[in-house]
Automatic annotation (TrEMBL):
<dbReference type="Pfam" id="PF14122">
    <property type="entry name" value="YokU"/>
</dbReference>
<protein>
    <submittedName>
        <fullName>YokU family protein</fullName>
    </submittedName>
</protein>
<dbReference type="InterPro" id="IPR022453">
    <property type="entry name" value="Znf_MqsA-type"/>
</dbReference>
<dbReference type="InterPro" id="IPR022451">
    <property type="entry name" value="CHP03829_YokU"/>
</dbReference>
Length: 90
């Protein structure tokens, strides 16, 4: 897999902990076991754009008031949606 930062072919899929600000801006949560691209050459850890979009859309569709301070990526994505889709994305 090619690293988006250094373009070397040493990137691999892993998991990491990320911190994400909730859409209402009231707080951030810790999301563990988040799918991550890791490059051993340049040391970058990053999430693919599609995962970022999926995560941000999901946060717009769930009740974020009840989220704990820390949860796994899978648990977050399993939170029930209040809306069928993000009507705010253009």
């Amino acid at each position: 897999m090619q690293c988006q930062w250094c373009e070397e072919e040493s990137a691999r899929i892993s998991q990491s902990t990320v911190y994400w600000e909730l859409p209402d801006g009231t707080r951030a949560i810790e999301i563990t076991e988040t799918p991550t691209i890791t490059c051993d050459i340049c040391g970058m850890l990053y999430q693919e754009e599609s995962l970022i979009d999926e995560l941000e859309d999901h946060l717009m569709l769930i009740n974020t008031k009840t989220l704990p301070k820390c949860m796994t990526y899978q648990a977050l994505m399993a939170e029930p949606k209040l809306l069928k889709r993000n009507y705010f994305r253009f």
